[in-house]
Design goal:
- Chain A: Pfam families: BPD_transp_1.
- The structure holds 2 protein chains of 2 kinds.
- By secondary structure, chain A is an all-alpha fold.
- Chain A folds into 2 domains: about 50 residues, no CATH class; about 230 residues, MetI-like (MetI-like fold).
- Chain B is globular and about 75 Å long.
- The longest helix of chain B has about 35 residues.
- The two termini of chain B are about 45 Å apart.
- Classes of the chains: A mainly alpha, B mainly alpha.
């Protein structure tokens, strides 16, 4: 409060001490170099991607042929694109449910139940979040390895020999198998976000509910979930964006889209088309598709997850 | 009642305990595997190594290029983090403290860019660097990394700069200190903890980065850890050199574990704030 009342006076002091030119020079010094770099390495590539998507181009300097929307119409008849889009959304779906259910359960358990070793779990669960995707991918390839892998080894050990299979080489099981490491590596962050929300809920609400005879299950649905809805919403949207924009890294490391196109997602298909088949125009068009789909998904989610703000 | 609540506490601990095992066991398995010979990994993937020797680590480090890649990753991580601070600190200060027309628009532009799929920009970025002869260049890769984290770093620093008392800046200005001096000597030291938080997260993301390095680097001597690990994986498959691959994974993970154990609080804070944005 005191600061606010001082503010006009203070502003004048600064104006007296520094001339206008000096001020603008300093402003330019602060903003321009950064903004120029941002334009060169972030804005230009984005716009460039949009621009390249209207060309047929193999990357060699001169032959760059303008073909209008041909890359986009080609996507319509490319069956791999459809498969990639479906796979991307399957990943999103498995991740949102897997991560949210587990993260919510762990968050409630670690905040509400006064478990002594809670900090230990928090530290352990979060760790995979900061591991490199390459390391996670390679490690899980081992875990799924048909011969020396942990999964098949475990299945054999408990007598379910017939369940053992080459997980990442199996047409039906490859996709869920690739999404498990994503859940494994993703839970910690969202657990912490939700824990932050839960610790801010006033204890008296639970005490009042207890007196009214509400079961713990009722308390969870009637108090905890509505009050941490903003965190739940943020988490879901964050998972969807990062998955659509980045799940291909794990796919590319673990299966490169295979077997066949069973795990192909838009990002990995972009990489293969552009940097392996040298169809840069088509690759750029796939990039635009990713941009459009992720923006549309976020807008739809914003509407779907909208809920009146709850305050008790 | 007492018994019931004890029972439910035990029941809740079971999934917690199971998930800890699911997280920790693969990592332990990887560390143990790094000390085994290939024959051991195949004959008894679950057992302890017969003797603890560092042969796999030595082989990975020197024969499979992991040593060079480790140093390259260290280089881009340090240079990238420093450059990012150099770009982000002045802008964050200007956006938070110097009011000017369009400051909100600029801040929102930076923040919104975090939502865009960077993969869309990779094709033009590749040809941009090709044109300027900057492909296969660790300096250029560091610069690209630094710029990619500018928005996130600005976002973190702006919230920390909001807490710096204005009186300090004003007093320094009245004493005749230039705005450059105020930024460098007054404000920057006061947002140290924000700088640490942002830098740790930047450093981790640069250390772990894989795809840009794959696209923008070419020769073996320039590869960073992510790319080198991927190549090691491919050759390990042909030669069945699994122990070496495990050792390589350990070399890539150990610095992160050390970092995590020292800066756990900063990392958690930075990541949760970054996700809330």
């Amino acid at each position: 409060m005191q600061l606010d009342s001082l503010y006009p006076y203070v502003e004048r002091v600064i104006d007296v001490v520094q001339s206008k030119t000096q001020k603008y020079l300093f402003l330019a010094f602060c903003l321009l170099p950064t903004f120029i770099m941002f334009c060169i390495f972030t804005v230009y590539p984005m716009i460039g991607g949009l621009y390249y998507s209207f060309f047929k181009w193999s990357g060699t300097s001169s032959v760059m042929e303008f073909i209008g929307f041909d890359n986009y119409t080609r996507m319509l008849s490319d069956s791999v694109i459809l498969r990639a889009i479906i796979n991307d959304y399957l990943f999103v779906f498995i991740k949102v449910f897997g991560i949210m259910i587990l993260a919510l359960f762990f968050a409630v358990a670690l905040t509400q139940l006064r478990i002594k070793e809670a900090p230990f779990y928090r530290i352990v669960f979060f760790f995979p979040n900061i591991m490199s995707v390459v390391v996670i991918g390679i490690l899980w390839q081992f875990i799924y390895d048909p011969n020396i892998g942990l999964v098949n080894g475990l299945l054999r050990a408990i007598g379910l020999e017939e369940w053992a299979r080459p997980w990442l080489g199996d047409m039906t099981w490859a996709l869920p198998s690739v999404s498990i490491p994503a859940i494994w590596a993703g839970i910690g962050l969202f657990m912490l976000l939700l824990m932050g929300g839960i610790t801010n809920i006033s204890k008296s609400l639970y005490e009042a509910a207890e007196i009214d005879g509400a079961s713990e299950w009722q308390q969870f649905w009637k108090i905890t979930v509505p009050l941490i809805w903003p965190q739940i919403k943020t988490s879901i949207i964050y998972i969807v964006i990062t998955s659509l924009n980045g799940s291909f890294v794990l796919v590319q490391v673990m299966t490169a889209g295979g077997p066949g196109v069973a795990t192909e997602v838009m990002g990995s298909y972009l990489y293969q088309k552009a940097f392996e088949d040298f169809q840069f125009g088509y690759g750029a068009a796939i990039g635009v598709l990713i941009l459009v789909l992720s923006l549309v998904s976020v807008i739809i989610l914003q509407v779907l997850l909208k809920k009146e703000k709850v305050e008790y | 009642m007492q018994i019931l609540s004890t029972l439910s506490k035990i029941a809740v601990r079971i999934p917690l305990f199971l998930w800890s095992i699911i997280v920790v066991f693969p990592l332990v398995w990887m560390f143990i595997g790094a000390f085994k010979t290939n024959a051991e990994i195949f004959s008894s993937p679950w057992s302890w190594p017969q003797q603890w020797n560092l042969n796999n680590f030595v082989a990975a480090w020197s024969n499979y290029n992991i040593g060079t890649a480790f140093l390259n990753s260290l280089f881009v991580t340090i240079l990238g983090s420093l450059l990012c601070l150099l770009f982000a600190i002045p802008t964050a200060y200007a956006l938070e403290r110097l009011r000017f027309k369009g400051s909100d628009v600029l801040l929102n532009t930076y923040l919104a860019s975090m939502m865009l799929p960077s993969v869309l920009g990779w094709i033009p970025l590749f040809f941009l660097l090709l044109k300027f002869n900057m492909l296969d260049n660790l300096w250029a890769l560091s610069l690209v990394y630094a710029v990619s984290q500018i928005p996130f770093t600005i976002f973190i620093l702006v919230s920390f700069m909001g807490n710096v008392p204005r009186e300090l800046e004003e007093a320094a200005a009245i004493d005749g200190m230039s705005p450059y001096g105020i930024l460098l000597k007054i404000v920057t030291p006061l947002v140290k903890s924000g700088i640490i938080t942002a830098t740790i997260l930047n450093a981790i993301s640069f250390w772990n980065e894989y795809f840009l390095a794959l696209i923008l680097l070419d020769t073996k001597s320039k590869n960073t850890l992510g790319v080198a690990m991927d190549l090691l994986k491919t050759s390990a498959r042909y030669e069945s050199a699994w122990g070496v691959l495990f050792a390589g994974l350990c070399i890539a993970v150990i610095p992160v574990i050390i970092f995590y154990s020292i800066f756990q609080r900063h990392i958690v804070k930075g990541m949760t704030e970054g996700a809330i944005k």
